[in-house]
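Trying the structure run again after the queue cleared.
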Amino acid sequence: MPFRKRTHSCGRLRSEHVGETVTLNGWCHRIRDLGGLFFLDIRDRFGLTQLFFDVEKFPELRNLRNEFVITATGLVRERTPETVNPQVATGEIEVVVDEFAVLNPAAVLPFPVSDEDQMRGVSEELRIKYRYLDLRRPSMQAKLMIRAECVRLIREYLDQREFVEIETPIFTKSTPEGARDYLVPYRLEPGLFYALPQSPQQYKQLLMVAGMECYYQIARCFRDEAQRADRQPEFTQLDLEMSFVHQEDVLELAEGLTRFVCNSVIEKFDLDLEPVAPFTRVTFDESMVRFGTDKPDLRFGLELFDITDIGARSDFAVFRSVAEAGGVVRGVRYPGGAELSRKQVGELEEFVKGFGAKGLAQFPIKEGFGGIAKFFDEGTIQEIVGRAGAEESDLLLFVADTEAKAHDPLARLRNEIGNRADLRDPRKLAFCWVLDFPLVMWDADESRWEASHHPFTSPKADDIQYLQSDPSRIRADCYDIVCNGTEWASGSIRIHRPDVQAKVFSLLGVDEATQKERFGHILEAFRMGAPPHGGIAPGIDRLVMLLTGDENIREVMAFPKIAGGYDPMMDAPGEIDSKQWEEMGLLLREKPKP
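Done. Tokens:
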């Protein structure tokens, strides 16, 4: 159906347009029928404009509902002083409608697009099922606009530094990289499969062998792993690789890029965030000791403290037995927590048990102390208080276990205290580098070494000597960017020598035959003049989450999946017909009966 094309968007009219005849196209955002007066806010992506109608001229107005698609032509006029709306950019004017038409009516919507307050009770599954409606909301459109601006700024920053944007294949070979692959059957030869890339890791290294030197890509990645708030089966990352670089070169570039993008977006969208400051640097070992995690939230203190030696000489049997068995006794301070009720302390104990702790010992810093303080003399209590940096009215909380098992519960507890004590400032983005990760970690369940990052990460030159004698001593040339307790980027200097790569594969339990079958192409490439190279891969989705203050990655994706990777809007994944099964050369095995 033909319609008059708009002369302006719904957010652009101002006082200087008074007296002009304009045409607006958009959606009915809010209707106000005041008897003889009829007002309608028309909305598009750029904003709202108030329309004024003569009811007698347009009797069909009574049939209008929110979200009808309409077109309106009329004269721009100033609002009277008492009717000016300072909350919207177009609040000083309105359009007196002379021509009007409904371009498409709207059925009754499953939720109220025009009322953000009423959306709070709408389930996430319903919002994603009708995502095209959810995305009409200005708050959701703002997130997509921030995301688009982030990507634009990334390209601007890297293009100015002579990086080349290169696409790599989506259909590739299945190689072990940590998560399960998504597989695609190869129709021409049943039994063969492509895999969707968990990352373009090998391709970007091959581009360095090809002499491209500075590559980047806004890359789609796919991982079949458990869903959580900051994970999706398909996601987007900035993939970046450089040749002839040391670790410091990558750190300098990535930090500069991060600060440029974040601070530009904060300024352009007037976000309620402080400018991003230069990054703090901590080593992996330091981070684990101070915070119990390699993803520390540096917006607040409350660093962990250690009293293992005190526990070993104490009369408290739990602490003493753990210390004598080679474990650790570590704690965290809860500011003002001495006034917590027994029930509240019990909730904290149940919280840490959910992350593997066997229990939670405690004593409050107040007259008479309490808790486990009875097992220590006055001098020892003061020694513990000093190590904790505690003050009157604080609560000291302790976990005693092996070092590996104590870290996670304490790190989670520290963050929980940060939430409860209102210490995690939402206006601050506290970025930091975490450096010098171990190259490998021992997997007790599988009785083998596994890569801390991925198998292409280079050992530090001084530590290569320990590849066979003592792998636990090997530090890796790898690095993470962490912000507010969330990993935003991970990268490393890569292995570029085939002999070192083969040794690392062997350490990880990949025998020579499997190396040749799965990684022969990259080992062969390394034999043909591979330069030293390294890179990093920041997550686009997670960056937008940080900037918008969202805690769920689905909030910053246009069309996300819900639990289990299900898409309720498209009803995917779905069944295929018998012909497709036959073409793929596949048979569906019946599920065993329970």
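The longest helix spans residues 138-159. Worth checking whether this holds up in the mutant runs.
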